[in-house]
Amino acid sequence: MEEKEPQKGMRLNKYIAHCGICNRREANAVVKGGLVKINDEVIKNPATKVQEGDVVKYRGHIVAPREPKVYVLMNKPKKVSLQKEDNVRKSVLDIVQPKYEQTLTAIGNLDTMDVGLVLLTNDTDLIEKLQDPSAEYRSIYHLVLDREFGVEDIIRIQERDRAGAAPIQIEEIDFLHPEEDRREIGVELLKGGALQLHTLFQDIGYQVEKLDCMNFANLTKKDLPRGWFRNLVHKEVVLLSHFSS
Predict the structure, then answer these.
(1) Rounded to an integer, what distance in angstroms lies between the CA atom of residue 106 and that of residue 114?
(2) What is the phi-psi region of residue 20: left when phi exceeds 0, alpha when psi lies from -120 to 50, beta otherwise?
(3) What is the C-alpha separation between 213 and 218, in angstroms, rounded?
(4) Which of 205, 195, 201, 130 has its CA nearest to residue 166?
(5) Which domains does the chain have, with CATH numbers?
(6) Which of 23, 46, 187, 218 is deepest in the core (most CB within 10 A)?
(7) Backbone Cα Rg of the chain
(8) DSSP character for 20?
(9) Which residues have a Cβ under 8 Å from the Cβ of 132 and sit 6 or more positions away?
């Protein structure tokens, strides 16, 4: 006896759940209640397979599964840009994007020669919130300047609320190794980012020779070597969720 080939497609209850209408168990009741149509035909069997090209409606409105949200943390190395640039050999998207079906966006303003944490995601709400110049979230940077940093300049910088045209809010700034090398500075920001730090130090006569983002929106480098990337764990996604709420 010839075996039937398994029907392709996605079960209707799973399809409805992936549209964000309800969970999978509730989707059974939704379908059995006659609230769902496939190609304008009411379907009451939750196991019916939705095929490619089918038009599914819930309460008369066309619905489609939402793209799963992806959150990737990368420890960016030197000579890698955030976005594709003609004069740069490689971008973080060249490295990360091939591993994911979803179209990712890199958040932040690290320069090509800067290193450290970069968040990549397809969560448009989160991207919009974090890229707003007035957004407030904790980030920590380690800087190496072209010359020793003067104690009096700490006060000058702490009093500034803008870097160029962009707002900046410094929570803490101090020497990393005051007895060894006063070119190394640690800066904790609540508002602003790498670009603003470059501008800020340049305005008072210093060049930032090295910038390393150690903490981004409370995400850390723990167990993430330079050049590597990983998916955020559930706890970290929850931590970020209030930014897009």
Answers:
(1) 14
(2) left
(3) 11
(4) 195
(5) 10-62 (3.10.290.10), 71-241 (3.30.2350.10)
(6) 187
(7) 24
(8) T
(9) none
Tokens of 108: 């932040």
**CA–CA distance from 72 to each of 91, 117, 187, 208, 233 (Å)?**
15, 10, 24, 27, 10
- Can you give the pLDDT of all 245 residues of the chain as single tens digits? 444 455 678 899 999 988 888 888 899 999 999 999 999 999 999 999 999 899 999 999 999 888 889 999 999 999 999 987 767 789 999 999 999 988 999 998 899 999 999 999 999 889 999 988 888 999 999 999 999 998 889 888 888 888 888 899 999 999 998 888 899 999 999 999 999 999 999 999 999 999 999 999 999 999 999 999 999 999 999 888 776 55
CA distances from 208 to 118, 145, 168 (A): 19, 5, 17
Report the distance separating Cα 231 and Cα 119, nearest Å. 10
Q: Which helix (H) or strand (E) holds 93?
A: helix 92-96
* Both tokens assigned to 236: 């970290």
